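Changelog note: in this version the structure field was regenerated for every chain. One regenerated record is shown below for reference.
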Amino acid sequence: MIAEILSVGTELLMGQIANTDAQYISRRLSELGVTLYRHTTVGDNPARVKEALAEALSRSDIVITTGGLGPTEDDLTKEMVGEYFGLEMRLDEKSLRAIEEYMNRIGRAMTENNRKQAYFPENAIIMENLCGTAPGCIVESGEKAVAVLPGPPHEMKDMFDRQLAPYLAR
């Protein structure tokens, strides 16, 4: 299996924060016996995300994205994956309830922006986020797959280890 990492976030591209997600995923992929072909970083720009995704999928079996799953308008990674594969976005009620419960637990009000985090490309395998509000997902199409992980390192690591690693091992 050949993988690529696509990190999404203007803050990464501009050097405002270090890309520790790519470092962690690279190490874990090696441990799992998955060949890593390339790392790419793009800003929060829909056209560039789709272009980078298309390039990565032309070379690899699976693309693992990090970032772009938050509640703000520029967080569009899932939507760009859905568009790339021609899939409609669908509300996942279980994810919506989990986000609502998380917001209640931390004492913050649920907003319409948070609701957007519960939408996924149709038929996606949803990966719950036990550490935050941004669930991830895996979208499969033919022999290709895209795994969409959150950007905050503690959320990404937990989701990778609990849910994506077992998927990759299969």
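Spot check on this record: The mean pLDDT is 96. The two ends are 11 Å apart (CA to CA).
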